[in-house]
Amino acid sequence: RKEVEQDPGPFNVPEGATVAFNCTYSNSASQSFFWYRQDCRKEPKLLMSVYSSGNEDGRFTAQLNRASQYISLLIRDSKLSDSATYLCVVSLPNDYKLSFGAGTTVTVRA
Amino acid sequence: NAGVTQTPKFQVLKTGQSMTLQCAQDMNHNSMYWYRQDPGMGLRLIYYSASEGTTDKGEVPNGYNVSRLNKREFSLRLESAAPSQTSVYFCASRAGSRSQHFGDGTRLSIL
After folding, report:
1. Are B99 and A37 in contact (CB under 8 A)?
2. How far is it, in rounded angstroms, from Cα B14 to Cα B7?
3. Rounded Cα–Cα distance for residues A51 and A23 (Å)
4. Which residues contact A10 (CB under 8 A, 6 or more apart)?
5. For residue A30, which phi and psi values (nearest 5 degrees)?
6. What is the DSSP letter of A80?
7. Most CB atoms within 10 A, among A44, B65, B70, B76?
8. Structural contact between residues B55 and B70, judged by C-beta atoms closer than 8 angstroms
9. CA geometry: angle at A8 spanning B58 and B91, to 5°?
10. How far is B31 from B102, CA to CA, in rounded Å?
11. How far is CA B45 from CA A28, A72, B62, B64, B111, in A?
12. Is B19 helix (H, G, I), strand (E, B) or coil?
């Protein structure tokens, strides 16, 4: 079983729509959670960290469900510029390594 | 405000040639990492360095060597390049349990 699994998509949505997707992780001891975005094989860039109580950054909302071992990302009022691959990243306490999901592709159409 | 700098950005090699990919960070991060990313696949960890003076194997270390030259620099060496090593290589750094910061990648083709 992979440490981090994501629905690869693609999620094709019109501008202005809301899109949401999840990421599951296998190790219940995981402690740090992040969402990154990656454009066209460029470098991954941090979108947001995910906190236990859930957190929001503008149009983006991240949630953590420890009981079911998944994190989610919701994008409201989608923009064309939101088209990207979104990577779920998880790490264990005191572990220097991070586990990356393979990514969920989102395409926002005009 | 450089962050993580990788050189070169593009390289074409012939099978059997050697080369070193350079990475430097100016954020005073302790941990540094090398990943490769192939089409349709996620990032795979090649080697990492938790701190200056230490290096450890990741998921796909075969065919690579690394050197943590100092706190800022972490290089990746291909001793005898093979076509299977054609990929995009990303270097990253990290402070503690915080998120990683990535360089903009090296596109490497091996003929």
Report:
1. no
2. 18
3. 15
4. A105, A106, A107
5. -55, 140
6. G
7. A44
8. no
9. 30
10. 12
11. 21, 24, 11, 12, 23
12. strand
Residue B61 phi, psi dihedral angles, 5° rounding: -85, -15
Chain A residues close to B41, C-beta within 8 Å: 102
Q: Is B55 on the interface with A (CB under 8 A)?
A: no
Q: Where are any strands of DSSP class E within chain A?
A: 4-6, 11-14, 19-25, 32-38, 45-49, 55-57, 60-65, 70-75, 84-91, 99-100, 104-109
pLDDT score, position A63: 97
Predicted confidence (pLDDT) per residue in B44-86, tens digit: 999 999 999 999 999 999 999 999 989 999 999 999 999 999 9
pLDDT band for position A94 (50/70/90)? Answer: confident
Cα–Cα distance list, B22 to B4, B66, B67, B73 (Å):
10, 10, 10, 7
**One-letter amino acid for residue B25 of the chain:** Q
Which of B100, B104, B105 is opposite residue A98, by nearest beta carbon? B100
A68: left (phi over 0), alpha (psi -120 to 50) or beta: alpha
In angstroms, the separation between the Cα of residue A38 and the nearest Cα of chain B is 11
Q: Which of A42, A91, A102 shows the shortest C-beta gap to B97?
A: A91
